[in-house]
Fold this sequence. Notes:
Shape: globular
CATH superfamily: LmbE-like
Number of helices: 6
Strand content: 15-25%
Amino acid sequence: MPKNYKNNSILVVAAHPDDEVLGCGGTISLHVNNGDKVSIVFFSDGVTSRNNTNSSFVNARKNAGITACNRLGVKNIKFLDMPDNKLDTIPFLDLVQKLEKIIDEVNPLVVYTHFSGDLNIDHRIVHQVVMTACRPQPNYCVREIYSFEILSSTGWTSPVSKPCFSPNKYIDISQTLEDKLYALDAYKDELREFPHSRSAKSVEYLAKYRGSSVGLIAAEAFMVERILN
């Protein structure tokens, strides 16, 4: 998080509703508590790649996203309603231009998004879209970009074929871990039983592991993509 500033504009760019909580829910809560203006954009509906889905499933996932974001204190939410796990079928320029329009609207100082090496194709494409839309230009609003990890995607990446997530920034969420878990509960239909990595316990354990690795009770880990001082 930026230090010694208040009322920053923060943008979280996620492939699917639930990625925002899994990747940086505790950090989002910290930003809101800091008085920052947080916006979240979801590229895909998160469900249409599954068998026997219909509009009711799409609406349920969208409502879960609204509930989760509201629990974190975020009101500015944008759904682009693109097909799940099919972002590679959409012209890349179209994706970039949609995000550029949102960036022009919210003027974020900080952007959080997916890790470039995730197993999920939508995650990887969203990362590329962010880095393209946020290419450094004179007087550009975005000063910091961080990538987060997603259980059952980042950790499932083959270390042979893709780069591994190697965090170099940790944010202390000791005081907001419960906020993260409360928001995550809005996606209970997406969660699995432990020891599946996409379980509430796994999310809690990861936060505590990331925290303990740097002497904290709980933390979220990120890779620094860019910091302009």
